[in-house]
Description:
The complex is a heterodimer. By secondary structure, chain A is of the alpha/beta class.
Amino acid sequence: MTEVHVFPSAPAGTVSGNRGLTVEEPLLFEMGGEAGCGVDLPEPRDVPDHLTGFARKGRIGLPGLSEPQVVRHYTRLSQKNYSIDAGFYPLGSCTMKYNPRLNEKVARTTGLGDLHPMQPVSTVQGALEAIDAMAAWLLGLTGMAGVAMSPAAGAHGELCGVMAIRAAQEAKGNPRKIILVPESAHGTNPATAALCGYSVVAIPATAEGRVDIAALKAKLSDDVAGLMLTNPNTCGLFEREVREIADLVHAAGAFFYMDGANFNALIGRVKIADLGADAMHINLHKTFSTPHGGGGPGAGPTVFSQALAPFAPLPFVRRGDDGFELVETRAQAGADAHPFGRMKGFHGQFGVMLRALAYAMSLGKDGFRQASGDAVLNANYLLARLKDVLSAPFEGPCMHEALFDDGFLKDTGVTTLDLAKALIDEGYHPMTMYFPLVVHGALLMEPTETESKQTLDAFIDTVRALAAKAKAGEADFFHAAPRLTPRRRLDETLAARKPVLRWAPPKAE
Amino acid sequence: MAKLYFSEEHEWISVEGGIGTVGITEYAQEQLGDVVFVELPEVGTAIEKGDDVAVVESVKAASEVYSPVSGEIVEINEDLADAPGQVNQSAEGDGWFFKIKLSDESELDDLMNRKDYDAFVEGLE
Lengths: 509, 125
């Protein structure tokens, strides 16, 4: 990196390269050399050296910057960010719903916000009660028998679920070798199975975008430890045969893991236990409106059926005779429990659980029912108002997300990627692209229930206008996008082939 | 003269003297877009027909490459580690993935010739 203050990719016509209040921002290391100094600490005097030869000999090369320089740096970077607070974020299978301010207020309550995980249990009874209350909500909404609150993300929850499946199979004498994963599942599903030492066998989708039952039957055997199914799947479709799938899996002595990333389509309406699932993670940062993506840590509590609940990991909160206790060891857990281990230090993402609890208590059960209904309605509104100009590969109605393929772009010279880049210029975060793989050039849009009709109409009008431009032969317009971002089209290929992952000081000439 | 065969998973295999050279087809590289990484099997690995033996990763997706025949891996294309773009430039030439010593040449009968493969791809459009 030699071009410290020269930014040829963003010609702004200004002498500084800045575009109004959008400021070109170098790295901290590029801004401050070692000559500067932000704080002025006195040199230590007469301190005996206990470092036994380990004292630093060279300089460590930290940039010398003042507090306002650092604050401005991070504030400017944050201003380049796109967030759910700034605009519509129709990223499919991500449930980018609004994060209510009430959640934040609750999480910052004095007494909750300042807790330390090493505090004695007697001093955090309220916090344990909050975890227990959130667990009760998750059990109530899913109808399941047990829940592990500690997983810290969706994929971590999947890992928790498959580790419980493995523990249960081992307890029966044989961990088995294979996890079945349909093509329409989330990409993390096969990764989770592989991480747990299982071979992944794919189940193809039918022409209507659902699991091929005949293919499933053919692949089931006593080598199969479990099936991981995303429902609704990434085509935005409900797997109607889910009960039959569960029965087939159980008949083969395997367990049924349901990926709960798309729970927002079902919450308040479908009891997961009724679908025959043995485990499902719940993304609190999706369905329960806590910050998602770069906005903060997530949480992926995992619910279990009666068969898997005894294998749930430590620690967990239990209501004892003298208030709430945090069960941290196998001995404490008791003879009936066979926890497979521990997923995380301490008890999980407590701040996220608090936000989710605030959300659950402010919605109530009827509120959840309305939320999932509105989420599905909004997705179908997008589908209905866009399917004549885009191309929908599967017959609707859809669930919480609407899937399109790139058939409408055939022979225009415009790709799904080009369209997404043009959307950025229009002020929208693009939809999920090229996923799921079961359709060509996928565009997957999930509006969630928190978007108004005005927001959706404005987005629809924009997408319709862009589709018309593409069909009118204005390919150059798309190939030049994005024009208005701090950086123009990035070279993804070069970035992947020759990644520059850390800054290094420029070499002396 | 080497004989060329194609699979429905978009691999090609060119066989000469019991050794098959395997890669992905021109159509497959076009669908994948710029290839950024190729993971190849180890020489000496015994492979069953249909096994996933390699991974090809592009800016759009990571896909598995299946062996169109059974046998033993005898050579891999080491150049792809530094120059994965060869798969885009020459999918059916310098962008080959691995060579395999066939254990059952009759498996080739299940594969397609160029004409049938072209018709198969036509049907996917």
